[in-house]
Design goal:
The chain is built from three helices and six strands, in the order ββββαβαβα. Strands 1-6-5-2-4-3 form a six-stranded mixed beta sheet, with helices on one face. Helices cover 35% and strands 20% of the residues. α1 crosses α2. It has one domain: Leucine Aminopeptidase, subunit E, domain 1, CATH 3.40.220.10.
């Protein structure tokens, strides 16, 4: 599985599945990755995962688990590509560097178990996000 970084809006990405945070009020997700159709998006599927707030107990472990759950759900769908935004940043309160380490670490961990997934594309909207993810990915490749 190739890990790529793109500086773009996740909604404009042409991949088989997109990962998105679930509505915090939704009780359907709770530790699972829930799939819906992509509708008018370029992706065929949207995988919703519960994203913790940085202040939650075990927040780092929960964000790692959410990333793994999304990648595993993409495998269940037998898709070749998945797009992931920086899930824990913004309103969820994770620092961009921390989010990058957690999510990219999960993707690298999943790489050895990848079956159908050929590309995990991290969609990073701003320069700061892209630079942080690029730095962490460079470290992980060493």
């Amino acid at each position: 599985m190739n890990i790529q970084l793109l500086r773009t809006d996740v909604a404009s990405l042409k991949v088989d599945a997109l990962v998105a945070p679930a509505d915090p009020q939704s009780h359907e997700v709770n530790g699972r990755a829930v799939v819906v159709t992509g509708g008018n998006l370029l992706a065929r599927f949207v995988i919703h995962v519960h994203v913790p707030s940085a202040g939650d107990d075990d927040a780092r472990a929960k964000l790692h688990a959410a990333t793994i759950a999304a990648l595993e759900r993409a495998e269940d769908l037998a898709v070749a590509s998945v797009g992931l935004p920086a899930l824990g940043t913004g309103a969820n309160g994770f620092a961009v560097d921390d989010c990058a380490r957690i999510m990219l670490g999960a993707a690298v961990q999943h790489r050895s178990r990848a079956r159908s997934l050929q590309r995990a594309v991290f969609c990073l909207f701003g320069r700061e996000e892209y630079a942080a993810f690029e730095s962490v990915l460079t470290e992980l490749k060493k």
